[in-house]
Each structure stands twice: as C-alpha cells, then as structure tokens.
Amino acid sequence: xxxxxxxxLTVLGRCAALPCRxxxxxxxxxxxxxxxxxxxxxxxTQSLLRNNGFSLARINHIFISHxxxxxxxxxxxxxxTLGMLGKKGAISIYAPAELKTYLDxxxxxxxGDFGFPIDFHSFDPFHSELIYEDxxxxxxxxxxxxxxxxxxxxxxxxxxxxxxxxxRCDFYGVPISQYNNIKAGLDFVNEKGITIPNEQLTTPAExxxxxxxxxxxxxxxxxxxxxxxxxxxxxxxxxxxxxxxRAKETQHSTASQAATIALKARVKKLIIGHISARYxxxxxxxxxxxxxxxxxxxxxxxxxxxx
Length: 307
Hints:
Elements: E1 8-13, E2 27-32, E3 35-41, H1 45-51, E4 59-63, H2 69-72, H3 75-84, E5 91-96, H4 98-109, E6 118-123, E7 130-133, E8 137-143, E9 151-157, E10 163-164, H5 166-171, H6 179-183, E11 188-189, E12 195-196, E13 202-203, E14 210-214, H7 224-227, E15 232-236, H8 244-250, H9 255-264, E16 270-273, H10 283-290, E17 297-298, E18 304-306
Parallel strand pairs: 3-4, 4-5, 5-6, 14-15, 15-16, 16-17
Antiparallel strand pairs: 1-2, 1-18, 2-3, 7-8, 8-9, 9-14, 10-13, 11-12
Helix pairs in contact: 9-10
C-alpha cells in the first residue's frame, strides 16, 4: 500500500461458484493502516496474491463469509504455504463456527501443526457482531440471505484526530506537550487564562471511511442500515434480471437488485462481482446495474480501487 492513510481494495476473484475463463473465485485484499486483510479465500487465492505482488507473510487476518467452497477451499492451501514459508506469528480467522471443524481435520491431515498459531474467532451469522477492533478500525458482520448461513463484513475506520495548525499554535504559544489534547478536540487555555477555541488551532481530519463486502445474498433491504452511506460496497450480482427466477432459487442477486440496494443505501461507490460463468459478456451486468445506479463498477481482477 503506497499510502498508509488511505484504504485500497484489490479484487482477486470476481466469479461465482465455478472457476471460469473470465475470472477466479471469491477473494479480496483490503489494505489499510499498514495491514493486509484477506476477505474470502476461493481456490487459487494464494497464487493470485503472489501474482499481484502481495506478501503472504503480511496477512494476519482472514475473514470468511460462509462455507460454500468457492469462498473457502483455498484456505488450507494458503495456511500450508504459510507454514512452509516459516511463518511464526499468529494468524486470526473470523468465520462461522463450523469452519473450525473442517480446518482441524485439514491440520491433522498435514501432521497436526502448520508451525504457527491459528486464532479462530467464530461469529453468529444471524446477528451483526463486532468481530475485530484495533486503534484505527472496527469490523462488524452483516447478516445476509443465502442458502446457508452467510455474513458480509463492514470495515469502518474510527474517527481520526484533527490536524494541528502549526502556524496558529505557534502564534498562540501552544506547547508541543499540548498537541495531543488539541488534536483530540480540546481548547487551549494560555497562561493569562484566555481560552483559544480548538477550531483556531486545528484543521478538520479526513472523514473516516466505510467499506462493505456483501457476499452471496438474495435481495434483502435488511442490510441497508448496516451499509448506509458507505464509501464503497462490493455487492454480489450473480445474474442478469432475465434470470431472476434462478437468482431467487439459489438465493443470489441480479445486477439490478445490487444496484437498487446501493441506491437505497446511498452508498458512494458500487462494485459488482460474483458473476455467474453462464455469461460470456460480463459487461451486460454492469450496464444493467448502471441503469439504476449511475457509475456502477464491474469488478476487475487484479485491479486496486481507492475507497
């Protein structure tokens, strides 16, 4: 990531269920605050990571939306490779509880130990939960509507401190020892007891960003409160509207339904993906979404988007 102050999303796979000539299975890298977070891990994800220049050793957090194979079958291979590369630090995996049973079997098959700790964090896919938090970021689950329990993820920056206006601080004699208080929003009281308003000593911080990953899901407006006014959402758009019947049967969304959700949630950017291999021209899905949500983006594998 070239700038630690911005969030970058790299799409590794944009296709649904079956691998196809036009793309790979689900996987994304979110780069933020000098961290790399992997979202879903379809087959071949580790190769896609390396082909796109990502260091596997820097990935310490993996989020798995649900247990369909195109979202998690690449995980054992990735973990095995990390072991062969000599990884020692712990890796945290956030997923439905059933994944741990599967992973335990895989680890036992490979000799009982990959050589590094795996911290498994299960979540209830039917309720939104705070599953990760650090000084700069929170991650919450977004319950979705699919043929098996499935969650999306909301990555949300915490409010950033204001910027010090050094020229004004020097003018009013603010000591450097008070800068943290000033950045936190406090006023400054000088030696004469005169209060200098915080607004005169700072400039506004950049707005905190929100990114929502809406994995496999049928159309449901229940997710709108979670993703409302997000800076960017990735929403599955497996089918065209002409195949709406099939979308309903498989609990997936059409491109127009993804666009409708984005429009109603007033999100700033919509990226569609998880496209069915039945379509030879993925551009048709983008056009369908764009007719409802102007500026809809068809995910391009290997491309990095600024959130």
